[in-house]
Amino acid sequence: MAQSRELPGFLAWLDRASEWLGRSLSWLILAMMLVQFLIVVLRYAFSFNSIPMQESVMYMHATVFMLAAAWTLKHDGHVRVDIFYRAMTPKRKALVDLCGTLFLLLPVMVFVILTSMGYVSKSWRIFEGSPDSGGIPGVFLLKTLIPLFAGLMILQALVEASRHFLVLTGRMDPTDNAHDHAEERL
């Protein structure tokens, strides 16, 4: 059976969308760093404090953390204790990753969505704002990141599960599944 180097149509599109979102969100890190620098300069040089600016750093951090998690999954960047995994063959790694995705990641993300919906919908009903006077009136938007995070993780998990399945069945080159870890090249 011929081995492919690419994912099938819609899965490849989802994979590219995850890559685009992750790269786009990386610019938010620069903005967050600049705003934090400005907060420090204004506070210590001019004795000026801004609650909306401080909260905006939290909003940006939460957005990057929650929405770029699927990109991190795509690049196999999550923490892994790989005492045995490192020495496995590519097909064995694909089997372990497929089982982890199907039996751990997907059920947990479905649980996150189901348990967060009431919490998020209550926040939307009252358009929950900052508890601090003069803060950003968008806590309901911040809480919406929780089910968005889980939804994006589910989509990327389906892509990864398909990729692992294709490797296991010999329809995808296992080297395409190998992720480049800098710490492994040391």
Descriptive overview:
This protein has one domain (9-178). The protein has helices spanning 9-46, 51-67, 69-74, 90-125, 139-168, 174-177, 182-185. It is mainly alpha-helical. Residues 32-165 form the Tripartite ATP-independent periplasmic transporters DctQ component domain. Keywords: Cell inner membrane, Cell membrane, Membrane, Transmembrane, Transmembrane helix, Transport. One of its GO terms (cellular component) is plasma membrane.
List keywords for this structure.
186 residues, mainly alpha, transmembrane helix, membrane, cell inner membrane
Short summary of the structure?
It is a multi-pass membrane protein. The protein is built from seven helices and no strands.
Uncertain spans:
none
Radius of gyration from the CA trace? 20 Å
Q: Can you count the beta strands? A: 0
Number of helices, where a helix is a run of at least 4 consecutive DSSP H or I residues = 7
CA distance, first residue to last residue? 36 Å
Oligomer: single chain
Arithmetic mean pLDDT? 89
Structural class by SSE content: mainly alpha
InterPro entries: DctQ, TRAP_DctQ
Pfam family, one: DctQ
Keywords: Cell inner membrane, Cell membrane, Membrane, Transmembrane, Transmembrane helix, Transport
Membrane topology: Multi-pass membrane protein
List the helices and strands and how they pair.
Blueprint: H1 9-46, H2 51-67, H3 69-74, H4 90-125, H5 139-168, H6 174-177, H7 182-185
Helix pairs in contact: 1-2, 1-5, 2-5, 4-5
